[in-house]
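User: Structure tokens for this complex, please. No commentary.
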Amino acid sequence: MSFALSEIGLNPSEIGQEMYRLISELYPICRSITGEGVRQTLRLVQRHIPLTIHEIPSGTKVFDWTVPKEWNIRDAYIGNARGERIVDFNKSNLHVVGYSVPVKKKVSLQELKEHLFTLPDCPDWIPYRTSYYKESWGFCLSHRQWSNLREEEYEVCIESSLEDGHLTYGELYLQGETTDEVLISCHTCHPSLCNDNLSGIALATFLAKILSPVRRRYSYRFLFIPGTIGSITWLCLNEAKVGQIKHGFVVTGVGDPGKSVYKKSRRGDAEIDKAFAHVLKDAGGDCEVIDFFPYGYDERQYCSPGFNLPVGCLMRTPHGRYPEYHTSADNLEFVQTPYLADSFAKALSVLHVIENNKTYRNLNPKCEPQLGRRGLYEMIGGQQEAKSREMAMLWVLNLADGSHTLLDIADRSGIYFHPRYRPPAGGTRTLNGLRPIAGSVVQPHG
Amino acid sequence: MSFALSEIGLNPSEIGQEMYRLISELYPICRSITGEGVRQTLRLVQRHIPLTIHEIPSGTKVFDWTVPKEWNIRDAYIGNARGERIVDFNKSNLHVVGYSVPVKKKVSLQELKEHLFTLPDCPDWIPYRTSYYKESWGFCLSHRQWSNLREEEYEVCIESSLEDGHLTYGELYLQGETTDEVLISCHTCHPSLCNDNLSGIALATFLAKILSPVRRRYSYRFLFIPGTIGSITWLCLNEAKVGQIKHGFVVTGVGDPGKSVYKKSRRGDAEIDKAFAHVLKDAGGDCEVIDFFPYGYDERQYCSPGFNLPVGCLMRTPHGRYPEYHTSADNLEFVQTPYLADSFAKALSVLHVIENNKTYRNLNPKCEPQLGRRGLYEMIGGQQEAKSREMAMLWVLNLADGSHTLLDIADRSGIYFHPRYRPPAGGTRTLNGLRPIAGSVVQPHG
Amino acid sequence: MSFALSEIGLNPSEIGQEMYRLISELYPICRSITGEGVRQTLRLVQRHIPLTIHEIPSGTKVFDWTVPKEWNIRDAYIGNARGERIVDFNKSNLHVVGYSVPVKKKVSLQELKEHLFTLPDCPDWIPYRTSYYKESWGFCLSHRQWSNLREEEYEVCIESSLEDGHLTYGELYLQGETTDEVLISCHTCHPSLCNDNLSGIALATFLAKILSPVRRRYSYRFLFIPGTIGSITWLCLNEAKVGQIKHGFVVTGVGDPGKSVYKKSRRGDAEIDKAFAHVLKDAGGDCEVIDFFPYGYDERQYCSPGFNLPVGCLMRTPHGRYPEYHTSADNLEFVQTPYLADSFAKALSVLHVIENNKTYRNLNPKCEPQLGRRGLYEMIGGQQEAKSREMAMLWVLNLADGSHTLLDIADRSGIYFHPRYRPPAGGTRTLNGLRPIAGSVVQPHG
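Assistant:
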């Protein structure tokens, strides 16, 4: 058995803490779809895993799109008539609309307000806004502060640059026993927002770290890319490799207190969809599997009709369904270690299922094999109920006809795909379900 | 786009009233499966649409059946001993059993009662009875009147004729851009019964009228035929044309206050079945789609196994499920303008769906096209929820792979197939859902 | 029509009583998977049906198994220090663990207890235990008696023999009009346990008896075999015949007061599965159809992947779900005549469905045939509801297109597959549903 969870050395209780630590380090950096913030982010990830960093020049044509100019920012503020910085990029990088062009001038309150964004319903929070594809500038601030702005002259200053440069992304390829690939993708383009998507970056980083040393049937490709333009760029430049992707998922928003949600691939019945359904069903009522829809994250691109890849999306509360989404309240208090660890454990369990989900053929298909003389069956007959271990054996023997995968058998029998990997918070549930059965009885098919 | 609802000039609020007006004109006429009443009815319909009237001779063999003799009636009554007409055909044509042979004689109460039909459970109503295929005579009357009949001598008189003649039906063929046909069929054989089926005649008449001037992808065939023998006759004489029928429905009982009911074709998954399910689901809780069963109206013949046409049946309360059914209580008070208008609007919406339900292929299938630079997407990113208009675009782009019709996409996305056509009573619900998308992005497939 | 229930001469009210009488005769016999008890049992069954008795030598290889040595027992007891038999095989054959090797020695209480089995939760009942495939000896007794055993010297005596001999099973083959077979199988290996499986033996016996004289489309094969090793042996020695089995079921535990349960074959959609579902659905709420699982009775072998036969299992409360299961409480009071009769009636109804479930083709497929002139349809039209008899005709005519069986039509129409066969306890429900229709209209297909 490749990829035995027992081979994995890291203590799962520590993974949630390590994820949180990485999120804390990445939090202050001002990221966007291009620029120094992305490079800084990827360099911090490189402390854990040997990411390759790719630089794609501005102006590169990628399908219907063009790699944009690179945006960088050094400083930005709004000053009042007394020269005080009343809105300061150094206090929160959310204050500046992403991809704002440079500006330095005096403006009236009226002109200023045309460039301000607030959240009237959450008057203490700063919204997150961008203007990637239309040259513009703007500031975001709390609605409370906005309401108190007086009629006076203001100075606006954005020391940014929007120039030919590069789109930067990170990639880690772990060669497995086969060239069939599992794709795990997270977006790296958001500034100081923890759940969306430092949590996804952290989960992908530690999945890669934990998988590096173990035996893997599949090869794994981890992508740390800017949203939308990043996946489009990668798909365009790597179109020849796309056929190797057999399973995959996007990771985003995996640290909030909401229940785990898996959004199925466009196919809806891909093996990755079944594996997530199996693992989340077993995890109990606080999980949900939802149908694909063509909005959300980079699954939009992976699942565009010309690719239609078996790629879903693992998250907790879906984007836009929690008030903190895309605001300054998506901060280091909003994401919490137990939820990060729980999301991590579910992702790892799914990979374990995928790795071990083979199709067996019972070489003794006519009547049951005599399990008793192999020590695999109760010796004193007549007892009232078969043990679940024996039931698992009987199910595998009965359905191992070359047309059912182990996951099919697990689903039909209602027996969990052994073993579970749970963070300590998961409590004392014991491992049960399928255990290895005599090698002489079943062998991999074809 | 062919058949845009916006091209349709008639004010929908007036259609219900026009339907009711036509029903009122047709109500007094004594119809049967043959005879002058049918011709008179079709001539009144011809005031609205250029119906072709076909006359098929009695004795014509049509599959397992034979076109019957033509029945006409001038007068009929039961007289009491004092010579008073106590039951008079001139007061209600329901008083005479349809296809009664001529009779004029004195009878005892006992003999009379062998020829009388009443509704003991609804003692004030006159039932509707026929005896098409067995020569007989009879009268229908209220049970209350029947109970008061005294022992005396009665005179019965039916001045009818049952002679070789013709079966008469009306047909209107509207040539469309293709020879593929939509069949709309209603039965014309019932005497003074408003819901069954003057309502269906009126709906078919005004559908034909409203569709005549508009651009139509499909050709439309409207049949105004006597029930059972009429559809059998048409199918037999037009067997070569049957393959052109791609969609169709029978219209009956569409003016009563019950909820709208669509009975699926025998196939159960024809496009017409999906279109009705889509339109009725959108119309809310007061609608129902039911499975096919081999009883009811002419869908029995269209869906016989040798034809198995994609023809369902639009109605409101199904036949036999309302006490007024086939009684004198199915009158001008039972059918009402708002229900007629509502049924009309649903039928028209279904035709709009059918007309516009094409299969597109996204010519930019690899990753999403950049909608933003085409002005089709929000310019300031990071907002909390995509607009439904954008969602509709994204769904079409995602599923326009040549294997999903627009109706499939509408059903999967949960977005209504734009636009809705509602009578004024439908209130203020706005049109939303799919709107035209950039021509450069999708084009009809194949 | 072959196999008309009306041809069956036995009074159904008597069958339950006859089944109970046979159970009473078989109850005292000590059966096991081999030995004289099985032969004695089969000889009693032979009084009703002409069973062929097969003897298969010990040591015969049957797939992965070997026919075991033959076990016989003459006497067994535990004696106390005063020479009293405190546990006596002559009082209940459950007292001895099945397949116990001979033993005669003095033992301490401690050594004795290593060979004793009790049911602490049901302290008055004797459990049923066997040790077929591991040489061993033991006694079963009530927990109450076990608790009172004192520290003294005991004598254990088992006068058994475990020697080369034969595995014995009974078989009855009833030749039908075709060589296609229905397999009905019951296990004969349990000692004094009434529901499991003297009830199954009795049901199979009287089914065979009642079917012998009637015209049968199918051939029937009844097997009276020891559980597991018996079906494995039969399948191995008769592998060439297995392809003739078109339908089948195992019968077990059909006399307890629980609701009827049918466990589907591994295929899940075999005709036998649909027939049981149809009959049990009609029988009302006290019935259940459950999915296949690879545990239970000989359906495990018939449904092993190398055979995958359309064989389900008819029972009442499933094994292990009632406390009396495999204990001395599964006695002559636990099984009752009405439940035996009810199970019998359901099995017979299912066979009636299978026998008569043909596929017809409507020779008049284009429009309905004119039923009226054949006297098959109401003559006075306009009545409010069609009769169910006419509905059945219309359904058959509509769906008899060569691709629907009568059972398919019955299921789709919601009309019961005529006629019902009920024990008197079933009350006064009348027969309805499908009746024969005019021969000129439909005929068997292909």
